[in-house]
Design a protein that fits this description.
The complex is a heterodimer of chains A (about 160) and B (about 250).
Chain A lengths: L1 H13 L13 H135 L1
Chain B lengths: L1 H7 L14 E4 L2 E4 H22 L8 H21 L8 H20 L19 H23 L15 H36 L5 H32 L8
Antiparallel strand pairs in B: 1-2
Helix pairs in contact in B: 2-3, 2-4, 3-4, 3-7, 4-7, 5-6, 5-7, 6-7
The chains are: A mainly alpha (about 160), B mainly alpha (about 250).
Chain lengths: ~160, ~250
C-alpha cells in the first residue's frame, strides 16, 4: 500500500512540468498568508477580544466576590468570637451575681437566725428570771409559812409540855 | 501511468487526483482555486461561529458561548504554557487562529464530502492539503517569531545564534530554515497522506473498511493542528525568552 501511494506521489510530482503537481508553489502562498492574517485580525476583533474580556471580567468578578466572601467570613468569625467572649463574660457576671446574692442571703439568714436566737435567748432569760422571781417569792412565802407553822408546832409542843 | 489507470477504470467510485489543481488566473498570477474555495468555507465557518458565540455575551455562559469560551481557554493555556505567563497575551490571536484554522480545515477535509462537488479540474479538499497553505502558515510563524524576538530583545536577538557557543552558528542559522520547512511539510504530509490512504482504501474496498482509517484521520488531523499551534507558540516563546529554550523544539 505504501509503495502504491508513494508511486502516486512520485507520479504526481513528475507532472509538475505540465503545470500541476504536489509541490506547485505559486501565488496561492502569499494570498493565503494575507488571507490568514486577515482572518486572525477578524477573529481577534470578533472572538478573542470580546470573549477574552468576558473571561477576564468573570475572573475578576469571581476573585473579588471571593475576597468579599472571605472578608465577610472573617467578620462573621470575629463577631462569633466576640459573642462567645461576651457570653462568657455575662456568664461570669451572672455567676458572681448569684454568688453575691447567695452570700447576702446567707448573711441575712444568719443574721435573722442570730437575731431570732438572741430574742429567744432574751425571752428565755426573762422567763427564767420571772420564774426565779416567782420561785423566790414562793420560797419566801413558804418560808414565812414554814416559820409560822414551826412556831405553831413549837407552841403546840411547848403548850402540851407545859400542860 | 498509475493515475491513468485509476481514472479510466469504469468501476471506480472515488477517483484519485493528486497534484491536479483548479487554476485561476488573476492578473498573470496562478492561483489554486480549490484551495481558496475550501479556505473561504473554513474562514466563513470560523467567523460565523465566532459571531454567533459573541452576539449575546452573558456572564454565565451557555451553549455556543460556553463552547467557544472553552476553545479560547484551551488556546490560552496552550499559548501560556509555551510562551509564558507574562508574554503570552498578544500572541493568543495568532496561535489561536493557527490552531482553529488548521483544525477546522483538517476536519472539514475529513468530514465533509467535498468530492461530491465536481470541479473542472482538481478536487475540493482540506486547504491544508495544499503545500501553499502550509508553507504560508509556516512562513508566517517564522515571521512571527522573528518579530517576537526583535520586538522583545532588539538586535540582541542575534546573540542567540552564537549561544551557547559560536561554533553552533551554522546550526543555529540552519534552524531558521528547518523550522518552517518541518512545520509545513509535517502538516502537509500528514493531511495529504491521510487523505490518500482513505482514498486508496475507498478505491479498493468501498464499504466499512476505510472507516477506522477515517477515524484515525480525524485524530491525526486534530493532533496536527495542535502540534502546529504548539510548535509555533514554542518558537515564539523561545525567541522571546532567549536562553535555554532549545528543548521545546
Amino acid at each position: 500500500m505504501m509503495n502504491f501511494v508513494w508511486l502516486l506521489a512520485v507520479e504526481a510530482a513528475e507532472t509538475v512540468e505540465e503545470g500541476g503537481g504536489l509541490f506547485d508553489l505559486d501565488a496561492t502562498l502569499p494570498l493565503m498568508a494575507v488571507q490568514f492574517v486577515l482572518l486572525a485580525v477578524a477573529l481577534n476583533a470578533l472572538f478573542y477580544k470580546p470573549l477574552g474580556k468576558v473571561l477576564d471580567e468573570r475572573d475578576g468578578y469571581i476573585s473579588s466576590n471571593q475576597v468579599d466572601a472571605a472578608e465577610r467570613l472573617a467578620k462573621a468569625e470575629q463577631i462569633a468570637k466576640q459573642y462567645q467572649q461576651e457570653l462568657a463574660e455575662t456568664r461570669r457576671q451572672a455567676q458572681t451575681v448569684i454568688a453575691e446574692a447567695q452570700e447576702e442571703a446567707q448573711k441575712i439568714a444568719s443574721q435573722t437566725v442570730a437575731a431570732a436566737q438572741q430574742e429567744a435567748q432574751a425571752q428565755r432569760e426573762q422567763v427564767q428570771r420571772e420564774l426565779d422571781e416567782q420561785k423566790s417569792q414562793a420560797m419566801a412565802t413558804l418560808e414565812q409559812q414554814v416559820d409560822g407553822l414551826s412556831q405553831q408546832i413549837l407552841d403546840k409542843l411547848l403548850g402540851s409540855l407545859a400542860a | 501511468m498509475a493515475l491513468n489507470m485509476f481514472t479510466i477504470h469504469p468501476l471506480v467510485l472515488a477517483e484519485l487526483e493528486v497534484g491536479q489543481h483548479l487554476y485561476w488566473q488573476v492578473g498573470g498570477l496562478k492561483l489554486h482555486g480549490q484551495v481558496f474555495l475550501t479556505s473561504w468555507f473554513v474562514i466563513g465557518v470560523l467567523l460565523l461561529v465566532s459571531f454567533l458565540a459573541t452576539r449575546n455575551i452573558q456572564r454565565i455562559p451557555s451553549g455556543l458561548q460556553n463552547f467557544m469560551e472553552y476553545a479560547l481557554e484551551f488556546i490560552r493555556d496552550l499559548a501560556k504554557n509555551q510562551i509564558g505567563e507574562k508574554e503570552y497575551r498578544p500572541w493568543v490571536p495568532f496561535v489561536g487562529t493557527l490552531f482553529l484554522f488548521i483544525f477546522v480545515s483538517n476536519w472539514s477535509g475529513a468530514l465533509i464530502p467535498w468530492k461530491l462537488i465536481h470541479l473542472p479540474a482538481g478536487e475540493l479538499a482540506a486547504p491544508t492539503n495544499d503545500i501553499n497553505t502550509t508553507v504560508a502558515l509556516a512562513l508566517l510563524t517564522s515571521l512571527a517569531y522573528f518579530y517576537a524576538g526583535f520586538s522583545k530583545r532588539g538586535l540582541g536577538y542575534f546573540a542567540k545564534y552564537i549561544e551557547p557557543t559560536p561554533i553552533l552558528l551554522p546550526i543555529n542559522i540552519l534552524e531558521d530554515f528547518t523550522k518552517p520547512l518541518s512545520l509545513s511539510f509535517r502538516l502537509f504530509g500528514n493531511i495529504l497522506a491521510d487523505e490518500l490512504v482513505v482514498a486508496v482504501l475507498v478505491l479498493l474496498v468501498p464499504l466499512f473498511v476505510p472507516l477506522p482509517v477515517m477515524v484515525l484521520g480525524l485524530f491525526t488531523s486534530a493532533i496536527q493542528a495542535l502540534i502546529f499551534a504548539t510548535l509555533a507558540a514554542a518558537y515564539i516563546g523561545e525567541a522571546i525568552e532567549g536562553h535555554g529554550g532549545e528543548e521545546h523544539g
